[in-house]
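Checklist before submission:
- one chain only
- standard amino acids only
- sequence pasted in full

Submission:
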Amino acid sequence: METHKTRKISVPSFKSEKDEATWWSGVEGRAFLKRQSSARSAAKPGGSKLVAKLARVGSVQIALRLPAPDLARARTIAKHKGIGCQTLLKMLVHEGCSAPKTNESPGRTCGYVAGPLIQSG
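Returned file contents:
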């Protein structure tokens, strides 16, 4: 059985931008980026357990229209918590949809009837 030797790739010095662009778009440049990317993903993820769990789950991109004041409030809360606004919104959707169901009323599809998800202050 043959063992695969991985040779270390480092970014060389370039004579021109054209040479640099050619290197980055070539096999060695792509291999370098792939190795850098896999090294970062192998590092222990930071943040909460919920954020890590949401990152593992496959996701679907959607467009969502929100009232401007709601989005502004979400951005303020996210900044206060030290997380991104989209991360906060994903966490809120996840929390709302996984909350225990209570007496469902017509028109409610998620079954969440409890108080606000975010406490102000």
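Reviewer check: The two ends are 63 Å apart (CA to CA).
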